């Protein structure tokens, strides 16, 4: 057994920070709304949680992660909504090669806002920790036990509306992790996540 940083606490604090930011920004956004068409929504806050499959990028390493996060959607521009996203991932199934957990934040862009099926793209950056299987991962005379590194994540996906507030998200990411026991010193994990999304709307467009 090993015990690293409390990522549940980190994700919870990150979500609270997004909520706090939304509450601070809402009065200004409400004033700006008066100058916009009534069908234009200002801020949109959503949270998501789900399960992800991970190819860790080292040998045949695989994890199954719990993934959770939040998005703060800003006013749309020409039918495209920029968002600020925070997400965390924690392995609930740890393979026999390595275990990866991370907390990331960055930007997300939603397209086709008036459709039930909406594509998006994102770029996230943060920190991650890798724990290697019992006894460590050996390369030559070196044995890797744990490493902490910056993480870059590029990806995107689709959200399908179920109701006005709930949606299903299918999300794919390709990441870059450093300080790895590979010839290049990097690992490139690939993640596929299915999550349930809940949206808290600050303003309902006229129907």
The gist of it:
By secondary structure, the chain is mainly beta. Helices cover 13% and strands 55% of the residues.
Describe the structure.
- By secondary structure, the chain is mainly beta.
- The protein has one domain (7-26, 43-201): Porin.
- It is 13% helix and 55% strand.
- The chain has an eight-stranded antiparallel barrel with strand order 1-2-3-4-5-8-9-10. It has a two-stranded antiparallel ribbon with strand order 6-7.
Poorly predicted spans: 1-5, 21-40
**How many H/I helical runs?**
1
Largest beta-sheet details:
8 strands, antiparallel, barrel
Rg, Cα atoms, Å: 19 Å
* Beta strand %: over 45%
CATH class: Mainly Beta
CATH architecture label = Beta Barrel
What distance separates the N and C termini?
54 Å
Helix-strand layout with pairing:
Layout: H1 7-33, E1 44-55, E2 62-73, E3 81-94, E4 98-110, E5 117-132, E6 137-139, E7 142-144, E8 146-161, E9 166-177, E10 190-201
Keywords:
207 residues, 8-stranded antiparallel β-barrel, single chain, 10 strands, 1 helix, Porin, disordered N terminus, mainly beta
């Amino acid at each position: 057994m090993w015990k690293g940083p409390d990522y549940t606490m980190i994700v919870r604090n990150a979500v609270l920070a997004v909520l706090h930011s939304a509450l601070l920004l809402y009065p200004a956004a409400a004033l700006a709304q008066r100058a916009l068409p009534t069908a234009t929504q200002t801020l949109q806050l959503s949270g998501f949680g789900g399960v992800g499959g991970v190819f860790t990028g080292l040998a045949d390493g695989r994890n199954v992660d719990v993934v959770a996060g939040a998005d703060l959607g800003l006013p749309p521009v020409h039918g495209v909504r920029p968002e600020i996203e925070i997400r965390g991932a924690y392995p609930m199934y740890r393979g026999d090669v390595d275990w990866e957990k991370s907390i990331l934040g960055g930007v997300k862009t939603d397209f086709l806002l008036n459709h039930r099926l909406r594509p998006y793209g994102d770029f996230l950056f943060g920190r991650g920790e890798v724990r290697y299987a019992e006894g460590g991962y050996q390369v030559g005379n070196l044995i890797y036990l744990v490493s902490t590194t910056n993480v870059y994540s590029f990806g995107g996906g689709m959200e399908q509306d179920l109701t006005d507030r709930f949606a299903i998200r299918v999300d794919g990411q390709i990441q870059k992790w450093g300080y790895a026991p590979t010839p290049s010193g990097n690992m490139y994990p690939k993640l596929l996540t299915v999550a349930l999304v809940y949206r808290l709307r600050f303003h309902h467009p006229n129907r």
